[in-house]
Write a structure and sequence with these properties.
Elements: H1 18-21, H2 27-40, H3 50-59, H4 66-76, H5 86-97, H6 106-113, H7 129-175
Length: about 180
């Protein structure tokens, strides 16, 4: 279950899949956004409320007025609960990449200052059927490449750890003789 979505009691809400719904972002970008979301979700309830958003904007160097913060939430608050779920948080970055945020809005500042560069991927909009088909193929292979790269990185880290342990044991044996 993703951050801030679904319910433990199974009350009928569908589980939110960021990679499925926000395909314009790479897996790495989604992880970075989730990390940022969790960092500022001080209550660890899966939501960023008004005070948490206030703190976030202050730490990012773009403090907002109380009204400005309320307007930021209102712009992406689909369920009208006056707080941001992870899905609504991702909508900020989707709108930023699509150029749908006003330059002087708090959400634009949040997207710009959060160190997650959505403009590198951008929001992909196919102009015609053939472009859409090619895009789907490329997207699938891009995710496969990212997964392979992550697996290779994990293997490399495991091998380095193994080598460090062996070197330590060798060094340790010189002292225990």
């Amino acid at each position: 279950r993703a951050v801030g979505e679904g319910s433990p009691g199974g009350s009928g809400r569908r589980v939110f899949s960021p990679a499925g719904e926000f395909r314009e972002f790479s897996r790495r970008q989604l992880r970075d956004m989730e990390r940022l979301f969790r960092q500022y979700d001080a209550g660890k309830d899966g939501f960023i409320d008004l005070m948490e958003l206030k703190l976030m904007m202050e730490k990012l160097g773009a403090p907002q007025t109380h009204l400005g913060l309320k307007n930021m939430i209102k712009e992406v608050d689909e369920d009208l609960d006056s707080k941001l779920s992870f899905r609504e948080f991702l909508l900020i970055f989707r709108k930023a990449a699509a150029g749908e945020l006003q330059e002087d809005s708090g959400l634009h500042a949040l997207a710009r200052l959060s160190e997650i560069d959505v403009s590198t991927e951008g929001v992909k909009g196919a102009k015609n059927f053939f472009e859409a088909k090619a895009q789907a193929i490329n997207e699938a292979s891009r995710f496969e490449e990212e997964i392979k790269a992550e697996q290779e990185e994990k293997k490399k880290q495991a091998e380095e750890l193994k080598q460090r342990k062996a070197a330590f044991k060798e060094l340790q044996s010189t002292f225990t003789q």
